Amino acid sequence: MKTFKISANLNSQERSKVTLSRSEKIAQQTAAREWAWSLPLPLKGLLLSSAGSLVLAQAALAEHVDLENVNLFDVQCGVAFASAMVAAGYWLNAQEGGGHGEGHGEAKEQQEVCILDDAGGFKLEMQDPEVDFYRETLIRYLGYSNECGEAFRPLVGDLGANLTYVVAVSYVMADAVDKAKRASKSSVVIRANEMFKQLDTTAQGYLTYPDVKAAFKELDVSVSDTQVDAFLRKANVLQGDKISYKEFMWALEREDSELELLLEAGAKTSPGPYFWGSQTPGKSTTLSAVRGVDALIWQLTASVIMPGFTINRIVTLTAILLAQYGPQDGVLAQVAPYIPTAVGLGVIPFIVAPLDMLAEVLLDVTIRKFAFDPLTATSADSLSEDELVKKLEGRPVSLPQKYLVEIFQKLDEDKDGQVSVKDWSTKGLDVYEEYKQKYGSASQA
Questions:
Q1: What is the chain's alpha carbon radius of gyration, rounded to the nearest angstrom?
Q2: Long-range contacts of 113-117 (CB under 8 A, 24+ apart)
Q3: Other CB atoms closer than 10 Å to residue 344's CB: what's the count?
Q4: Is 430 exposed, middle or buried (0-12, 13-18, 19+ CB in 10 A)?
Q5: What distance lies between CA 282 and its chain's CA centroid?
Q6: Cα separation of 383 and 206, whole Å?
Q7: For residues 203 and 388, is the Cβ–Cβ distance under 8 A?
Q8: Which one of 220, 262, 301, 438 has the fewest beta carbons within 10 angstroms of its own beta carbon?
C-alpha cells in the first residue's frame, strides 16, 4: 500500500489508528446532517464549506494514508475550522455591506485644509487625508509574508517557512508602535475638543472673540494682547467675527503657539469654566498603550495566526489529495509537487478580507468591549443629553425641551448617550436650524 508523509505540515508522532464500520459512518453522518439543518440559517452557511472539506478529507485519508504518520482527526478538524473561519468572515462582510474590517484600499474623501501661503497668509486647499504608512502603502504586503511562507512550506521546508513569520511579526510590531504614537496625538485633539466645548457655552458651533480673549485672561496665559489679536486673525481664516469649529481645528493642526499655550494652561487649572484637563497625562498614556496593544492583537490574529493556519491546512489537504489521486509519472507528475504551493498562493486573495472582518468582530465582542473600551472611554470631547439641552436652553430664543431631546437622539447614532463636539458643530447645527424653522414659531407663540 502506498503511503504519503508531509513532514513539514503534519505531526509525525505515532498516533493510534481509529477505524469505523461503514454503517457507523453512515449513522454519524445522518445525525450530523439532521443537527446541521436544525440550526439557524446563518450558522448553516458557516458550516457549508466545512462539511465539503470534511468529505474530501475523509475520502482522501480514510483508507489510503498511513495513519501512523497522519492524524486523520487533526486534518479533518483543521480543514473544517479554517473553512468555517473564512465562511464566517464572508457572512460578516455581507452583513456589514462589504466592509473589510480594518480595511485596505478603502476610498477616502479629500479634506479641506488650511495652509500657509507664500505671502505669509493662509489659504484653503482640498488635500488627500494622511496616508497610513503601514496599512495603506505597499509595505502592508509584508503582513502576508507568513501566508506565502505556508504556501511554500512543502518546497522550502520548516526553516524557510518559519523565517517568513519573523518578517510578518516584525511588520505587526511596527504597525502597533505606529498606532500607539497616533493615539498620543489624538489625546491632544480630545483636549482641544474639550476646550471648544467649554468655551462654546450655548452650543453655537463657533467661538467669539470675547470667548477666546476671556480664556487667555482668566488663565493668565503669558502672551500679550497683541499676540492674542494676531492669533485670532490667523484663526479666523474664513473671515467674520467668530471662529468656527473647522477654523479652530485648523489652528490646532498648524500648531499655533498661542493655542498650544492656552490648551496647556487650561489643563492645569481647577475644574471650572476654563478647565479642559480631563485628558490627563495618565489617560493619554493609557490611550496610547491600549491602541498599540489593540493593533498588535488585531494584526496577529488577522494577519498572522488565522491566515497562516488556513493556508497551512489547505496546502496540506491539496498535497494529500495529489498523493492519492494525482499523476504518478510523466510531466504532470513532475509538476505535482508545486501544485499545493500554487493553490496556497491562489487562495490568499480570497481569505484576507473575510478573516480581517472576523478578527475585527471577535475583538469588538470580547477584549475591546470588556477591557479596552472601559480603559479609554472619555466624555471630554462629547456632549451628553443634559449638557446639550442645558447649553441650548441658554440661548435667548430656544426650542421647547422635547424638541431639544429629539435633536440629541437623532444625532446620537451609536446610542451611547453622547454626541461628539465635532458632530454637533458640523452636522448638529443644521438639524437644529431645521427644527427651528419647523417648530420655532409655534414655540414662541
A1: 30
A2: 113/250, 113/253, 114/237, 114/247, 114/250, 114/253, 114/254, 116/254
A3: 26
A4: exposed
A5: 24
A6: 15
A7: yes
A8: 220
Average pLDDT of span 312-325: 84
pLDDT, mean over the chain:
78
pLDDT tens per residue across span 9-27: 333 333 333 334 445 545 5
- Burial class of 330 by CB neighbour count within 10 A (0 to 12, 13 to 18, 19+): exposed
Residues 6+ apart with CB under 8 A from 172: 143, 296, 299, 300, 303, 304
Backbone angles phi, psi at 207, to 5 degrees: -115, 140
Q: Minimal CA–CA distance to 245: which of 192, 294, 288, 298?
A: 192
Q: Which one-letter DSSP state was computed for residue 3?
A: -
- The residue with cell 503511503 is 3
Among 423, 408, 382, smallest CA distance to 190 is for 382
Question: Which helix (DSSP H) or strand (DSSP E) does residue 148 occupy?
Answer: helix 145-199
Nine-digit cell string for 126? 482640498
CA angle 416, 419, 424 (to 5 degrees): 165
Q: What is the pLDDT of residue 229?
A: 85
12: three-class secondary structure by DSSP: coil
Pick from 128, 175, 171, 149: nearest CA to 292: 175
157 in Cβ contact with 8 (< 8 Å): yes
Burial bucket for residue 103 (CB in 10 Å: 0-12, 13-18, 19+)? middle
User: Degrees (nearest 5) of the Cα angle 116, 119, 125?
Assistant: 40
**Cα separation values, 376 from 189, 283, 293, 294, Å:** 14, 7, 13, 12
Using alpha carbons, select from 10, 4, 2 the residue that is nearest to residue 316: 10
Instruction: Quote the cell numbers at residue 353.
Output: 478580507
Cross-strand bridge partners of residue 111: 127
For residue 69, the 8-state DSSP code is T
Lowest mean pLDDT of 183-187, 243-247, 299-303, name the range. Answer: 183-187
Which distant-in-sequence residues (6+ apart) come within 8 Å of 184 by Cβ? 284, 287, 288
User: How far is Cα of residue 144 from the mean position of the Cα atoms in its chain?
Assistant: 18
